[in-house]
């Protein structure tokens, strides 16, 4: 594990997965992706595919081996960073593909103060004008909010230009932006309320996995 001593609210693990394992993930899911959506806070909380904010292709999936290792990494980082959050569950991983000009603008995975999520059988059944972040189609995550997030880089950053992961946070009263280029297999672990983005890819294709770890609402 690596942790920047200058206030960066994140940890990085570079050696959790063998390259062959990551290559197999890419091969399995790169052609199964669909257009990603995002929470449109300016349009009464609906989900939007407006590519000015988020332009990427994604698919949710399950892989017990991958998910077990990521859980271990998150638990260790949660303790080593001193957050000691009460993490009780995790959403399915999301495979993400960014091609040329694709990106994800500044956003939070979940803001502090959100209520625990309510169960809904299908995301298409979210009430009109309801906030999609307050519903979850997984009974194991009822009443939870996202607390910790990860990004796993699946391919070598030498295979694409741009596409850096960047965080924004305050340190000693100053706004800091921190880019993480990483390498194949790098896992970035950070609190879900941290503002972050994926800078537009200029050339090539960036493959990654994101996942969210949840617990009871903040009090």
List key phrases describing it.
single chain; mainly beta; 219 residues; eight-stranded antiparallel beta sheet; 19 strands; five-stranded antiparallel beta sheet; Jelly Rolls
Which strand-content bin applies to the residues?
A: 35-45%
User: What is the annotated CATH architecture?
Assistant: Sandwich
Please, what is the CATH homologous superfamily?
A: q2cbj1_9rhob like domain
Sheet with most strands: 8 strands, antiparallel
What structural category characterises the helix and strand content?
mainly beta
Total discrete domains? 1
- Number of helical segments with 4 or more residues: 2
Order of H and E elements: EHEEEEEHEEEEEEEEEEEEE
Low-confidence stretches: none
| The CATH top-level class label | Mainly Beta
In one word, what is the shape?
globular
Please bin the fraction of helical residues: 10-25%
The radius of gyration is: 17 Å
CA(first)-CA(last) distance: 29 Å
Report mean pLDDT, rounded to a whole number. 90
Tally of DSSP β-strands: 19
Output the CATH topology: Jelly Rolls
């Amino acid at each position: 594990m690596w942790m920047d001593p200058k206030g960066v609210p994140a940890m990085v693990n570079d050696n959790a997965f063998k390259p062959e394992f990551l290559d197999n993930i890419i091969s399995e899911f790169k052609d199964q992706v669909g257009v990603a959506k995002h929470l449109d806070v300016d349009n009464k909380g609906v989900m939007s595919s407006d590519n000015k904010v988020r332009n990427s292709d994604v698919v949710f999936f399950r892989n017990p081996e991958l998910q077990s290792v990521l859980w271990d990494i998150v638990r260790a980082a949660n303790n080593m960073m001193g957050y000691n959050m009460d993490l009780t569950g995790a959403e399915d991983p999301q495979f993400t593909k960014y091609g040329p000009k694709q990106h994800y603008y500044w956003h939070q995975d979940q803001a502090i103060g959100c209520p625990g999520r309510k169960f809904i059988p299908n995301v298409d059944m979210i009430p009109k004008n309801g906030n999609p972040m307050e519903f979850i189609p997984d009974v194991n995550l009822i009443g939870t909010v996202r607390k910790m997030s990860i990004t796993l880089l699946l391919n070598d950053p030498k295979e694409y230009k741009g596409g850096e992961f960047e965080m924004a946070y305050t340190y000693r009263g100053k706004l800091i932006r921190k880019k993480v280029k990483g390498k194949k297999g790098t896992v970035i672990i950070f609190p879900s309320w941290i503002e972050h983005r994926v800078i537009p890819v200029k050339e090539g294709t960036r493959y990654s996995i994101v996942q969210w770890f949840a617990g009871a609402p903040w009090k």
